[in-house]
Amino acid sequence: MLKGVAKAGGNDPQDHYGIVVALSNLSKTLSGAQEDSTFAAAADAGATMLRISRMIVYINDENGNLVTCGSVGVLSGERDMLEVALEVAAATLDSANPVIYPNPSTPNNEIVAGLKRVNLFSALGVPMRVGQMNVGAIVALGAKPRLFAQADIDLLHIVASQTALVVWKTRNQPSPTENIPEDQDTLIQLADRKIQELSLVNRVSEAVSSTLNLEKLLDIALEQSMASVGADVGSLMLINKDTNKLEIVASRGLAEKWVKQTSVKIGSSISGWVAEHGESALINDARSDQRFKMPFFRDQISSAASIPLKAKGAVIGVLNISAHKPKRVFDERDLQLLGTVANQMAAAIENARLYDRVNRRTKELDSLLHISRTITSTLNLDDVMRQLCDEICQVFQLDVCTLLLLDELSGRFRFGHGCGLKTRRKYIYYDLSSPFALRVRKTGSKLLIKNIDASKAMRTEISKQEGLHSAICIPVKHQGQLVAVVTGFSREQRALAKSQMDIIRPLGELAGVALHNARKYRQKYKMAAILQEKLTPSSIPEVSGLDIGHKFLPARGVGGDYYDFIKFSEGKIGIIVGDVAGSDIEAAEYTTMGKYVLRAYAKDYSSAADVLAKTNDMVCEDTRTEMFISLFYGIIDVERGKLRYASAGCEPAVLYRAKTKIVTSLAADGMLLGIKRGTTYVEQEVDIEPGDILLLHTDGLPEAGVGNERFGTHRVHEVVKENAKSSAQNIVDNLYGALIEFGHGRITDDVAMVAVKVL
Predict the structure, then answer these.
(1) Per-residue pLDDT band at 605 (split at 50, 70, 90)
(2) Which end of the chain is more exposed for a tag (fewer CB within 10 A), N or C?
(3) Is the pTM here over 0.85, yes or no?
(4) Could you give the number of structural domains in the chain?
(5) 239: phi then psi, degrees, rounded to nearest 5
């Protein structure tokens, strides 16, 4: 609102020129003592100096009625507006004092309602008086909301008094008690001050409106305030809500050491007094003013002023200025001007603080979201602990961080992860952070230490050697139970900001969930690894006339692919390659079940198709949703030179014929195990001869991809054909090498391979 009003300021030479012209015209008119021209000049001068759209001069006629004698900005036909203006003039004469209606929303009376009805938002009425006699009134009407300053009232009051004096002189006789030239000089001085005031308000308004950066805003506002009153030294102090003390946030002309060291209690010293009472203070003799308490007296100060910064009725800070020039003494008008600017500064500071809080809170939530995504992106416990320490160091600006896990069985802490120390020895991290962790375990709450050296219980040789001075210890909980403690250290002595304090609890809870899940996963993973080890044959049975090679590549350490061998007699062996949907712990558990069920039925049934059918029925009884098994089961009889096989949705086996050097696929229809009870399977039989090679594999081999390209069956056939003269193990090893080269060292699905070469 003030920004529009302030355009009258001295920044625009045209505005300055207009005010000077208006004053000149008024001066000439007053000296001529012509009543009619006086009213028009008075209206013009008042409107120009106040930069208001409408100005009306009323005088009392012989019957005591108010009559319009001069105006600016009034259009013909605006009867409703003139009626409201007349009501303002009448109210002015009734009170014999200036009346102000700054906003139609408050207070609620007939005049305010009338202003609103004619689209006016502010009004100022000043009586025209000579001694105790009312001559008339001057009314200013604004089309925008406006808070009239004391300088506005003073300006219009002098215009009104001078105009009233002319009216009185033309009707009666000159008054020996009035000095027109002196009042004209005063009017010019007031107008000049008004120009300066509006210029300052305009500069401050534009400056504070151009940024929400609090530091920049404070510096600009202080600079403009000091320039407006010719101050040599100045400071802006804001109340720290955490300590309830005034702290310097911007300064000019003060030594840096005093800026850093100054912290004033509310009620102490002149700044504290101003903050406590909410009143401005003018000091022209610091030594005699008991409120002016300083660590030393600066005798060069000729004058000083302190003005409260108020927002929503509460003091949020203090503006301090002082002059060192002997003849420069601040007065009440300086105080009033600075008070106007201080109110504007306070509102801007609150807006910047609100923006800063919202922005900081957004960053905090972003940090939590980022931490959440980071530490929940993996179930690997080591990765979770490392990422958690890295994120905490970044969020709290720490130099060292240590995570100690609480062992569920022993109830003791053990080292989890550490970063930032000059050493990599785990016990150093443990010794450094264990005193903090034990304290947190005892209290169950966070621990903040600004100065480690002052705490005998927490100070260690390690913290001394590393130059660590402050610490934060965060309890990491899951469902209310402590699972770990993270301790961070800084090489600077500092306290955490309130925003950082607020993030500690949700961060601890978030980390607790991630650590709990990762630890449970590790426990389950270890169990699955044991199962996986059981799935992979510890030794390959030796069968006369056969050379067997094998390889298993889990995508995530454990998986659902497996292979197995069942030796029936010296020249007869069963070979299984299976794949459970998924590559995780549940897949490994489920595969184990399928393996031993099939082994049991293979001992009782000689037909591969019957074994699959019986296994399917058993799996269907214990199956979980979307947990199915694809499987190839073949029985090789070396003496008869036969291979009998059946498939339950598995990849077709590969058969290389030594005589023809042709590679073919052994396709067999069959539904996945675990889908439908009572499913039957078809058994196939082929002849095998010396030199022939049988390759069984899961779908992870041909379906391995890079972008849109797949390894494919054709590459499998090529590798087998190219290595036909090699051993069975060399064939699977070379397949593995070709797969890794194709996938640039990565695989996305489990791969199980078994090669059997007939000798």
Answers:
(1) very high
(2) C
(3) no
(4) 4
(5) -80, 120
Bin 494: left if φ > 0, else alpha if -120 < ψ < 50, else beta.
Answer: beta
Residue 364, in any domain of the structure = no
State whether 501 and 557 are in the same domain.
no
- Of the three residues 194, 222, 242, the one that is the final residue of a domain is 194
Domain boundary among 311, 326, 356: 356
SS3 536: coil
Instruction: Check whether residue 540 and residue 418 sit in a common domain.
Output: no
Question: Which of the pair, 38 or 65, is modelled with greater confidence?
Answer: 65
Q: With respect to residue 687, please indicate whether it lies within any of the assigned structural domains.
A: yes
* Residues near 330 by beta carbon (within 8 Å), at least 6 away in sequence: 229, 282, 284, 303, 304, 305, 321, 323
Amino acid symbol at 604 = D
147 and 258 co-located in one domain: no
Residue 545 has what pLDDT? Answer: 92
Cα–Cα nearest to 547, from 755, 721, 697: 755
Contact between residue 635 and residue 564 where contact means Cβ atoms under 8 Å apart: no
| Furthest C-alpha separation in the chain | 148
122: phi then psi, degrees, rounded to nearest 5: -155, 150
- Domain span at residue 386 reads 376-527
The Cα angle at residue 336 between residues 330 and 341, in degrees rounded to 5: 105
Return the pLDDT at 200: 61
Do 397 and 367 meet the contact criterion of CB atoms below 8 Å apart?
no
Residue 54 lies in a domain: yes
**How many whole angstroms separate alpha carbon 427 and alpha carbon 421?**
12
Shared domain check, 573 and 489? no
pLDDT (0 to 100) of residue 175: 45
Q: Which residues pair with 663 in a beta bridge?
A: 656
Check whether 668 has a pLDDT greater than 70: yes
Same domain? 230 vs 298: yes
Domain at 110, CATH number: 3.30.450.40
Query: pLDDT band at residue 3, thresholds of 50, 70 and 90?
Result: very low
How confident is the model at residue 101, as a pLDDT? 86
Residue 326 corresponds to which tokens in the numbers above? 């002997």
